[in-house]
Amino acid sequence: MKNPAPRRVVIKLGTGVLTSGIGQLDTARIAAIAAEIEALRRAGTEVIVVSSGAVGLGMGRLGLKKKPSELSRKQACAAIGQSLLMQTWQRAFDPHGLTVAQVLLTHEDLRARGRYLGVKDTLEKLIDYGTIPVINENDTVSAAEIKFGDNDTLSAMVASLVDAQHLVILSTAPGLIDMKGTGQIVPVVEKITPEIEAMAGGTTSETATGGMISKISAAKLATKAGCGVFIASGAEPEILARLFSGRSPGTFFVPSGLPMESKKRWLAYFQRPSGNILINDRAVPVLREQGRSLLAIGVTGVSGGFAAGDIVNILSPEGRILARGVSAFTDAEVRAAAGKSSEELKPLFPGRKRLEVVHRDNLVVL
Ligand code: GLU
Description:
Blueprint: E1 8-13, H1 15-18, E2 19-20, E3 24-25, H2 27-42, E4 46-51, H3 54-62, H4 71-93, E5 100-105, H5 107-111, H6 113-128, E6 132-137, H7 151-161, E7 166-171, E8 188-189, H8 194-198, H9 211-224, E9 228-233, H10 239-244, E10 251-253, H11 262-269, E11 275-279, H12 283-288, E12 299-304, E13 311-315, E14 321-326, H13 331-337, H14 342-345, E15 363-365
Parallel strand pairs: 1-4, 1-7, 4-6, 5-6, 7-9, 8-10, 11-13
Antiparallel strand pairs: 2-3, 9-10, 11-12, 13-14, 14-15
Helix pairs in contact: 2-4, 3-4, 7-9
Bound molecules: glutamic acid (GLU).
Glutamic acid binds at residues 14-15, 52-56, 78, 136-137, 139, 150-151, 209-210.
């Protein structure tokens, strides 16, 4: 039976799919992918592209064989390559009468709630206008602290932001390979367990960034948002048609049946926590199974510095990130409150009505 066309998809293309050699555009492949995207559109699917390749194309234009190690040189390559990248995409969609729209993002744009909602709104408008948004990280202005780091993460965040049904990550990797076991591609992953994560390795390519590790963590984020994720080779002919008709040659990650609501997703995955709150054994099930607030009595320690209202990691006694949430207290206040009962806290924080360290409405278990 033929699967119904998905409503909305995000397609991420790695540098290795768009180029052959260092920074040489593979125009035939790009044209084939554009034709496939057009076919999806005709079937009623809205498509958002996340395209890498700016740094690689910049390197190609400059004749560089190695990625520069200096950040400002990489940023310069991205500035040179990004405009070439957009020209390439527009040319590829011209025969289909489609217009592309460049959207460049930094992590900051999705961290602040107001800007996050603004980006979402603009993407909706671009889709309304019938264009194909082509998103990349704004590498030229992205310093380490405002970077997504890789476009796999960026594509998963975009998929979550626009409530996409599917995220397709096309790279030179044919899928997730079970190196320790069968040596074959894992066709379906129901749940991303530590065993699945152990199957991934980094990248060794000159132009690529993430490797399988970042793809799996992207899949984790997107599946929690209720989005099914394909990881497959962009070199395969008719790859999109095959994926969406269920003849997937890659790996499919099943979306979570109980996706997190949008605000909690933003809290869980779009932030860089400024500190950690450590909790004791008794507090673990209170948060994890009972979904209650974190009280000072369950806190054993603090690390990092944060203000009230900042986002923090909540760590289990073994140091594992258990949850993420908005701390109602500063780091110094949490340190002073650690281990105390609500009765003991009252005189320490006179006039304060709420004494939960992290209220359950502002807390998400990971
Ligand atoms: N934003 C980078 C580029 O356009 C690619 C990062 C990635 O592929 O993960 O070159």
